[in-house]
Amino acid sequence: MSHVSEIDIVIKSLDAVRAACERLGWQFVERQTTYKWYGRWVGDSPLPKNTKIEDLGKCDHAIKVPGASYEVGVVEMPDGTYALRYDLWSSGGLDAKLGKNAGFLKQAYGIEAAKIAARRKGFSCYEQVQEDGKTIELVMRRADS
Question: In the predicted model, is pLDDT for residue 42 greater than 50?
């Protein structure tokens, strides 16, 4: 069965996606034009927004996640942002690796995008993991202070 889904996040920076993948121990594969999924649409769930059946499995870049047989497709949108698409069917192994609602990937992307933006504006940046072991605080300081 196929359940291709789009992760609810707007990707503006491929550099942040690369850094997020590195942070998570995943591999960002530039210019890989297909991502691994079930391989055929069976019509049992809605297609991602603005997607045709023939577009499933096609991408501009891909993310390989160790321990998963399926991959995440990074698809450039007409406005220059990127969408992340993957088949969440359990046999592909991605759903468990990405976390609930792809939370691991979204958190890592958010952290890395914030760090990149801060550095571009002249801030130094470091992370502090909170007592719960899950919450990450980004501390930014002007590099000249």
Answer: yes
């992307």: which residue's tokens? 109
- Phi, psi (rounded to 5 degrees) for 86: -155, 160
Full 3-state SS string of 68-129: CCCCEEEEECCCCCEEEEEECCHHHCHHHHHCHHHHHHHHHHHHHHHHHHHHHCCEEEEEEE
| Nearest-angstrom CA–CA distance, 91 and 89 | 6
Cβ 108 vs Cβ 133: under 8 Å: no
Give the DSSP letter of residue 58.
Answer: B
- Please report the DSSP string for 14-43 in residue order: HHHHHHHHHHHT-EEETT--B--S-SS--S
* C-alpha–C-alpha distance, residues 31 and 5, integer Å: 21
Instruction: Provide the token pair at 43.
Output: 């019509």
Query: What is the per-residue pLDDT for 1?
Result: 47
The DSSP call for residue 5 is E
Whether the pLDDT of residue 9 is over 90: the answer is yes
Domain that holds residue 24: 4-142
If one counts the domains in the chain, the total is: 1
In this structure, what token pair is assigned to residue 106?
Answer: 């979204």
